[in-house]
């Protein structure tokens, strides 16, 4: 009982911090089933979820989210976008800050204990992004002793440290990794291939993806535990594979990255 | 409690790195802070200006920016600030210590300067009257009294510095084994154990209190013991 109270207080602090960190306008809050839907996306990942300078949003996750929201009966102007950084995702779903999340959100067992997932709508794999003129790296086994950049705490950062003997450089954002990669201070950036594709697309000709994925990440749509929309969203995801919306969302956002669209995954109705 | 069996040694190593950052930054910021304070009260105008410029620049810049500049500006562009041949994790450690030390030293300087103001003017005048030079005056008369009167606020600066070590996560300070300092380790655990976030918060909050509480107690005890009785 006592622990619950403490947990509630700590949770409140965490929420206050996360709200302060976002700073975006959030006047709608949560009203699932009403005439608005709040969707959590990344704001800082080009090609996936990105807030452009003019205040609009673009990316594969954004297009998929719009498609799903429309299938659920919301018009585009009824969608409120909210930034969901990785550490906030479970909290946002649990306290109702957002109604669903499409933010390169990998389905894992630990997360399944906290939230529900529809999908997967994409299977990504951890890969390497290197400078276009670098021919010394052909796969993860060439990384021994090379400087490799990733985002602090991410699963990809942990994997490279543990398995491939690379020298890890961690930053708190991918954009710092990109700057250091351009400057030659590091040799590669590692994370899911589709995120890398977003950067390859943003800086045409500067980078290339090695193309030897060494993990499998199933991106799902995060939903609050017990959400009744889950089956509907699973249907919508399957529908998007068939009617070409999925492929279009990819080609519109990542078509010029030199990275090829894989086969659509099989939706997991657990 | 399997969090502890799985991450126990990593948590200890993470706080070890935090402590190492704090100890080095503490020593350098105290030294640099005294130097800056001496500059700011010195009779030489150029030194006063330098002291003021450093304090106003770094005290009013967010630590994240100072940290970022240490790596991207100093090290990547100007190739100074850390040994080029050292392992990557040592380079980042040295740069983080530089950033933290410079930043914290401006607060140390201002605390010391306020302490100097508590020493009655008559003391400095008397010291000059018996023929002490400026440096003897500071070293033997003014600074010892000033320091003793500001132990508590100085401890607050040091506690803030210990918590500020978490900003080192922006440039990725890790141990040789690749374990992050405390805030990076916290992010790692939150990524992996999404179902135990509250417990993880509590563990790290307690960890920091274990580091900072003794500083406050020590300062409280010392400020009583060394109080200047006038």
UniProtKB/TrEMBL annotation, chain A:
Residues 36-257 form the Solute-binding protein family 3/N-terminal domain. Keywords: Signal, Transport. InterPro entries: Bact_solute-bind_prot3, Solute-binding_3/MltF_N. SUPFAM superfamilies: Periplasmic binding protein-like II. Residues 1-23 form the signal peptide. Belongs to the bacterial solute-binding protein 3 family. This is Glutamate-binding protein. It comes from Nocardioides luteus.
From TrEMBL, chain B:
Keywords: Amino-acid transport, Cell membrane, Membrane, Transmembrane, Transmembrane helix, Transport. The chain crosses the membrane at residues 21-41, 61-78, 154-176, 196-222. Pfam families: BPD_transp_1. It is a multi-pass membrane protein. It is found in: Cell membrane. Residues 15-212 form the ABC transmembrane type-1 domain. Belongs to the binding-protein-dependent transport system permease family. HisMQ subfamily. This is Glutamate ABC transporter permease. It comes from Nocardioides luteus. The lineage of its organism: Bacteria, Bacillati, Actinomycetota, Actinomycetes, Propionibacteriales.
